[in-house]
Each structure stands twice: as C-alpha cells, then as structure tokens.
Amino acid sequence: MSYGYEEDSYEAGMRRHNEELQQVMQAEQDLIRIQQQQAAMNAGYLPPQQPSGYDAGYGPMEPQQQYYAPPPQGDSYYAPAAEPQIGPLQGVFIEILEGRNLKDVEVLGDMDPYARILLGDQDVRTRAHKDEGCNLFFNDTLEVGVTDGVDEIVIEIWDSNKYNITGDTLVGTTRMPLSDLRAGQFQDRWLELRDEDGESAGELHVKFTPRT
After folding, report:
1. Which residue in 97, 102, 147, 188 has its CB near the most CB atoms, within 10 A?
2. How far apart, in whole angstroms, are the C-alpha atoms of residue 212 and residue 88?
3. Structural domain 91-211, CATH architecture
C-alpha cells in the first residue's frame, strides 16, 4: 500500500505551520521594536522615524525636516540639585599645625612657642613647645564658640618665659576673618605673623573647620 500522498500532505502541512509560526514571531518582534521606538520618541531620546523610499502612488518622497521631541517638563527631570542648607556658624575647630621662620625673641637658648586664640571674650592656648625654636610643628587643636558681633579670630604666637620675671614675650599676631568660615567651607592656610611694630614675624600653618 502507498502512503506517498499522505507523506506529501504531512510535509506540506508542517511547512505551512513553520511559515505561519515564523510570521507570528516576526510580527511580535516588529511590534516590540515599534513600541520601543515610540517610547524613546515620547521621552525625547530619539527623533521620530520619517518614512523613506517611495510614497505609494506618488513617486520619490521629498526629504523631511527631522524633529526632536523636547524633554519632559513640569517635574524633576531637569530640576537643579538643591544646595545644602547651611545653618549659622556655631564654632570653629582650629588646628595649629606648623610655624615657619618665627621671629626669635629669646635672649638665651631656643624659644618655647605656644599659640593663643582670642575670639570675643574667649582666650584659649596651646601647650608650650619647649626648646622648639623658630621652625616647629605645633599639631595642636583647639575649639572656640562663635558669638554675635565678632568678626575675626585673632591668633598670637608667644614665647613662654616660665622662669623670667618679665613674663612671656609676644612673637607675632595674625587674623582670620569669620566671613570666610560662615559659608561652611573648610580653610587651610599659611598666615603671616606681624610683630608689635608691624614687621613680619614668620608664618603659621592653620586649618579652620567651621561647626554649624
């Protein structure tokens, strides 16, 4: 008995089934691609796709101007980042780091320098650095509170004369405006010291950290 006709019909049916399946898959892929393009156009990422080739029944199409959709408005898409809110200046951490080429006011031996911080009615001091002389690392940290009506921090360098009846000797003075700290910004500076005659008395390396 011959089954050739039935085999041909089965193969033809399978081919038609495979063709229909491929058409369905292709249609799904085309739909996904169109949806992705439309979403990108709506978001302003891609220009709308212009038709190309021949317009049916009218011959070649004229080139059309490309149009880019504007970015979305009305929400935070392009909203600038909000600047941090800085409260009033409450205090300052002061790191006295290094003295360089300090004026030598010691008669015998090496100086014993220390720093004195004046802010309003506050008067705080570092330890004396015995026999450290005119070039030294202080590495001392002090904190002062800030009150209304005060505009600057005064820093003085003194030579400790513990056993001298004339008392300690001023080396030089420098000043730091509080306006530079009220913005909440850290400051790292070399400040020039001036003696009582207004002459240069060396330099002082200081870091200021505002507390708000």
Report:
1. 102
2. 6
3. Sandwich (2.60)
Residue in this structure with the two tokens 């450290």, named with its chain if needed: 132
For the chain, state the CA radius of gyration.
Answer: 41
Which two tokens mark 71?
Answer: 């970015």
Please choose, from the candidates 61, 130, 103, the residue with its C-alpha nearest in 3D space to the C-alpha of residue 204. Answer: 103
* pLDDT tens figures, 70-108: 555 555 555 565 555 667 888 999 999 999 999 999 888
pTM here is 0.60
Asked which of 6-10, 17-21, 98-102 is least confident by mean pLDDT, the reply is 6-10
Are 95 and 141 within 8 A, CB to CB?
A: yes
